[in-house]
Amino acid sequence: MNIPNPSRRRALLLAGAAAFSFCTAATAQTYPSKPVRVIVAFTAGGTTDILARAVTQKLSEKLGQPFVIDNKPGAGGNIGTEMAVRAAPDGYTLIVNSVGPMAVNQTLYKSLPYDPLKDLVPIVQIADVPNVLVVHPSVPAKTLAQFIEYAKARPGKLSYGSTGVGTSSHLSSYMLGQRSGMDTVHVPYKGANVLNDLLAGRLQFMFATVPSVIQHIRAGKLRALAVSSEGPSRSLPGVPTVAEKGFPGFSAGSWFGFFAPKGTPASVIQLVNKTVNDVLPSLQEQMVREGADPVGGTPEQFGQFAQREHEKWKAIVRDSGASID
């Protein structure tokens, strides 16, 4: 076997490093050279889909290639998430995902064939979207305190809807009931159909994402009592937080951001991160009007945030007893 001398070996290593650097730089310069598929693990028209479409339109304009939304709903977001996990890590499949598939479902579902926080890499957080506690106008309460008093005087009589067992809307109501002593009935739905029954008065209240109900609040069809975020929502000025109304530490909002399959080139992650951060200011007015608070930041910040959310929701899901086979 012909073993090169030390000088020759160093030269080969330097040449290899240079070639790797060149390839990385070339990827950054040429990406994207064809359309990019952006998976959304939920139906068209939902909060994840609306935010993804707003941002991908700007990405298409800035980077000169279509960023095409591909809705793959089902199993609480697990179907679309697994598709992203299994996709080639070449930068041409990304996913805009949310708190459920990334931070809740690992604990909620008895067995997932992947680990979203290990098999997907964070790119950038798009937005925080608080949940808002809304009641049907037939409920006389005008404040959170009045609502809790009203509910506690009617144990087992009030029903709340959610977009499914173990979703943020379900667990937000569970947390409030646990901490306030309310005895209410959970009625899970598949997706956004819950709003129809809430608007019709067949349900009395729910925690819903602000974008899904903000127009109904403005029209007087629903009454907003409190938001579930740590701080006030720019989209609903004047609506207090649950935390400031007697439940310190109460935080149960939703969030959304870009992820990529593990192994996606760092140059792609950096380019998409930078471009999203560049375009978010131009979307701020629209996003706040529709119920979302733009975030941005680095991949590292987003990854650390997602890990903290996983730990928080793991404890809440286990305490609630929620489970899906």
Automatic annotation (TrEMBL):
It comes from the Bacteria. SUPFAM superfamilies: Periplasmic binding protein-like II (SSF53850). The keyword Signal applies. Pfam families: TctC. CDD domains: PBP2_Bug27. Belongs to the UPF0065 (bug) family. This is Tripartite-type tricarboxylate transporter receptor subunit TctC.
